[in-house]
Design the sequence.
């Protein structure tokens, strides 16, 4: 970089910092009002599983976006509508697509709540309410970040599309078709989702990928009915044994999945990914103690994060055959079944892996029935994305802390609709405290996390597309 | 054999036939009265599982034995008493120990009975009542056989001990200790039990052995609680997989038990046993159709009766871990367990085999807990016993049909108390029709089977110790 360029960059950088500090000041001045607004928002139930309050909350959101000066629409799906808001008055500027969900989990069991789930209450610096952490408090922080920018500067540093899902808590069944149908309107440069929790230490995190998912069942049918294990033992085939022997061909005791071809599309971690996970804190001894285990799963030599990020799994979720009550019942059961899930890593697809499962079962136990259940593609954005440094910088400016970078997390989310369907880099940047108790009674969001979330949202708008930050990311 | 001996034998034989025919005539003349007596006996409930009517029926039996001129006692056990009757006035003659049980199964579900279970009713040549086949009608036939002999001849051809168990339907928990305690009083030359069913074709059968039984459970403990299969998949060990891999080391897909040493004490069938089972009818295609199977269990080349008689089994009775409801639940279960039974063949003992199981589990999966449940020794009397021909002759004389000889049956009964504890040859000679519906509603005994039972009982008393029959058995 030439000296003149450097001087220009420094000048632009300090100008941007001043502009962002003005937004931070605005957030600090309005903190109390923002908390009140969030509590008002969270007082409206929007329970997708119980079909309660969905339309009302979608309209509240639309009104808020319109009042902020954004365009906003309630777009139908086969299920609950998507709220889509937009601000695109920065001609020629890049666009960030923000994703969140306005539906919440059912609040039951109600008697376990200290205060009612839809009467948001502050205790010990936290707001308690259903959906406050997952996800109302997090996308509302992003909304307030936009609002603060507009109030302070009259415009945004980039264009914004805000997409709020009304069915995330029931598995976003209509999100893939919605994104496909509206892909022209959703054209953007990257996707940012504020969901999940920061590290238990309070350190912010950025997640770049998720594992995919494939659920299936194997059903083995034996005799028409349970038969006497003495009168028929050795004569009538036992479906439980058939299932045991089939399963033993699918994964070995050393922890390797032994379905032919399943590792063909599993890539080793990159040098940059290994470097990132080496920096991640983990307390294996503490986890073992918490869960009452003496050691991790096989193979023993595999690193903690390698297990979760770069290896597919084949998990038995449930295995059932015959008698399970007290004492003995001397039968040969009439049937056996197993419920499995596989977590898939980038490059694997549920369709391809399911085909391998079907082929494997056909070769080893052709009479066994294979039933496919839910599935989800894996998703991964390169940790070497040019946006990575901008995101790190934005978080540092908002929170004064360098975030931990997770190349992948072990669970599954439909991020593939962004990375694979829309072809965009996608980043998950959680704002909530790690003990938010989402999906559980007494769900809560710390006010500190909420305000940091607003500032982080504001800093992301300011920094995401800052070429000077991009220039310094190498 | 010399000519003079032959002539003597022929003469003794025709004398014995005449004496037996006189008993048969008596049975025919008193058939209607015998049926009435049986119906009166079966009208008294004696349900061990529900502790109903046990003492009353024990006293009825004692009174009957005393009225016949036998000694009779009600001997206590830790549970229900044993009724022990004796006739030993044939000085120097051998003794047969007859075994049966006076307790019956619970009658429930009552609404499934056409007529009440304790109001014996005749329909279509059958008596319907709880316990009529299992076992009241069968041991009562033996009692009437003794009574008929005594009425016609004033004495019995041999000495008799009659032992009636009051807890067979709850597993005869006190029979082993009772037999051990009273072994001096139970001194006999052989044991005959009338229980079970004749062949569906109506052909009588003699059973020489039963398989033993060993029940155990394996418990695998994982994390303290179910954990998320995404967040922990690859990290937390899965007890269901541990159990699958352990079980796969215990029996292979070819049908062989692979616990070290388990076949060490398994003897191949003798030539005489193979000859006997070659004569036994079996309809494998019919069984497969009835049970909805395409083929028998592995290995395919093993003969039907070899499977049931000469091979131990390792049967999964129940296998359970994790979620079993509809849809999916993406967890790593916190535990897994299996309930197994092993059927043991002669020379194997539950203690030795259980020790092999424990050793195997300790070697392959030391963290897995092994829990022993019930067990029972196998029992086998040689089909080449000198009594075999006498029994065949007795049955032929009573029923005009040659019985089928079963060296072993697949199920388990406590016959070992006779063969191993008392060291006696023991024979199971069922009298009931094969569709007796024992343990089920509408239990029944055909009057024809009952009367044949009385005559068979009488013929056994006459023939069992007949040296001329013994002489012709080679």
Sequence:
């Amino acid at each position: 970089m030439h000296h003149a360029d450097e001087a220009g960059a420094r000048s632009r950088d300090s100008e941007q910092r001043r502009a962002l500090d003005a937004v931070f000041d605005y957030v600090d001045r309005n903190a109390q009002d923002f908390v009140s607004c969030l509590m008002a928002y969270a007082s409206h139930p929007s329970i997708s599983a119980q079909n309660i309050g969905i339309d009302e909350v979608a309209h509240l959101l639309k009104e808020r976006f319109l009042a902020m000066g954004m365009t906003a629409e309630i777009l139908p799906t086969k299920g609950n509508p998507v709220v889509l808001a937009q601000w695109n008055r920065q001609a020629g500027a890049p666009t960030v697509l923000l994703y969140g969900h306005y539906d919440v989990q059912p609040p039951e069991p109600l008697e376990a709540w200290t205060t009612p789930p839809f009467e948001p209450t502050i205790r010990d610096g936290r707001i308690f309410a259903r959906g406050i952490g997952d996800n109302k408090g997090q996308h509302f922080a992003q909304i307030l970040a936009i609002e603060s920018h507009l109030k302070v500067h009259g415009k945004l540093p980039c264009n914004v599309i805000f997409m709020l899902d009304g069915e995330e808590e029931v598995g976003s069944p209509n999100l893939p078709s919605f994104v496909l149908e509206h892909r022209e309107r959703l054209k953007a440069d990257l996707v940012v989702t504020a969901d999940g929790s920061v590290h238990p230490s309070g350190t912010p995190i950025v997640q770049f990928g998720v594992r995919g998912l494939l659920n299936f069942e194997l059903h083995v049918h034996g005799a028409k009915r349970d038969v006497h294990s003495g009168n028929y033992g050795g004569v009538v085939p036992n479906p439980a044994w058939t299932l045991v022997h089939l399963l033993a061909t699918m994964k070995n005791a050393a922890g390797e999945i032994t379905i032919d071809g399943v590792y063909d599309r599993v890539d080793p971690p990159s040098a940059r990914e290994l470097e990132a996970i080496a920096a991640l804190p983990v307390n294996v001894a503490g986890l073992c103690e918490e869960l009452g285990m003496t050691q991790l799963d096989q193979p023993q030599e595999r690193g903690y994060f390698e297990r979760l990020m770069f290896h597919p799994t084949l998990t038995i979720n449930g295995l059932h055959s015959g008698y399970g009550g007290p004492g003995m019942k001397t039968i040969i059961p009439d049937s056996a079944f197993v419920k499995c899930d596989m977590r898939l890593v980038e490059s694997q697809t549920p369709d391809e892996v399911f085909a391998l499962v079907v082929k494997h079962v056909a070769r080893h136990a052709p009479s066994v029935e294979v039933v496919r259940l839910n599935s989800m593609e894996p998703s991964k954005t390169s940790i070497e994305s040019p946006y990575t440094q901008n995101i790190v910088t934005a978080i540092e400016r908002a929170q004064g802390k360098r975030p931990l970078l997770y190349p992948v997390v072990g669970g599954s989310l439909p991020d593939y609709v962004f990375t694979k369907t829309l072809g965009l880099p996608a980043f998950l940047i959680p704002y909530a405290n790690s003990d938010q108790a989402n999906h559980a009674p007494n769900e809560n969001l710390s006010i500190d996390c909420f305000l940091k979330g607003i500032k982080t949202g504001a800093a992301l708008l300011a920094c995401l597309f800052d070429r000077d930050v991009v220039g310094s990311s190498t």
Observations:
- Chain A touches chain B through 74 residues (CB under 8 Å).
- Chain A has two domains: 3-210+379-471, 212-266+312-376.
